[in-house]
Every structure is written in structure tokens, then in C-alpha cells.
Amino acid sequence: MAKFIFKKRIGRRSNKDTKLVIETGVVRKPIYSSVFQNDNDGSFFELDDVQIMRYKRNKALFMFFDTYANKEKYQLFEFGLPFKISENMSVIIRKLKRKCDSINNKLLGYVWIHDVGEENFGHHFHLVIATNKINDYKYPNALKLDFKGNKIHGNFVKKDDAFKNYLIGKSLYDRGYRKRLYGRSINFKTIRTNINESKDYLKTI
Question: What is the reported pTM?
């Protein structure tokens, strides 16, 4: 464990930086550095705000994929959304919840991160959702999304670990003043274990 000691400014962000972020996308630069003291040996160490944010983002990704690792219970879907479609993730997530309800399924949890790709894709979001298991190899028609006349790429997550590692390896790219770079559902809901299964498990303890 470590105790927070103080914060110091190590950089600045100007209006020119914000314009550059919107037009091209740049890796986020640290603005603050926080000093901590190790509870075990009393040593001091520093982490900048970018390191802390990336740690929190990746912690959310690890928690999401760990929660929904059981492929007998859960199905993961990934979506790629360019900014030209929508900068408001909540609108897309609400639409996905309605789509899941329409096929008698449930959106149990989600995570998203902001990214910047090649020139043709630019600013975009990676969104991953978890639902109840779908016993079909065919991608559901209900989750073939479009928004304001633009199609949204969607697919099964076929290799969980590879995709998780791909996301956690992403840099933090700025998208403007006070714009979020990642997000997650408040809860990662899970499917309750069958009562009989619980009783069988308890007998083995």
C-alpha cells in the first residue's frame, strides 16, 4: 500500500493543443505528478496523471474480461465507432441495451476506450459488451447497428485474451479538454449460479 503525499504541476495544456488534438489526435501528455510514500519501507515514488489514468483504464479492462471469462455463461461483442458516427457513447450503449432486450437477452456490462488509428479511421472508440450466452454461431441481426445512416462495425470477440491485451496496450490519446478517454458500466452484472449447483459445490468443501 502507498500513501498520497502531494501533487505538483509538470506540464501545461493550451488552446492550441486542444485544436491539434481535435484535428489530428496526439498522445496525451502529463500535466501533474503525484508523490506517494510506500507504507512498507517509507520510500517515495512518483506517478504522473497519464500513468495513473492508464492504470485505472487497464484495471477496468482486466475486471471486465475476468468477470465474463466463462464462455458457457457469457458472450462478448466488440464494436468500432468512428467519431463521425457519434462522440456520445451513452447513446450507442442505450441503443444496444434496447437491441439486446429485443432478442430476450441482457446487456450485463461494458467497457470502452478512446483510440486514434490511421488517417482513414482517425479518432474512434472500441466498445466491448457482455451479454448472456448466445447458443448460435451466427452474429445476431439485432446487433447489426447503424446510427444516423452510418453502419457500425460489430463482431463476436473471438479471442478474449488477445483482444484484452490489444486494448490494454493502447496509448492514451487526447480528445479535448475534460473529455473522457475510457468508460465502463457502473456494475459488471453476472448470472446467478443455479441453487442446485451451489449445493453440489458446498458438498465438496
Answer: 0.84
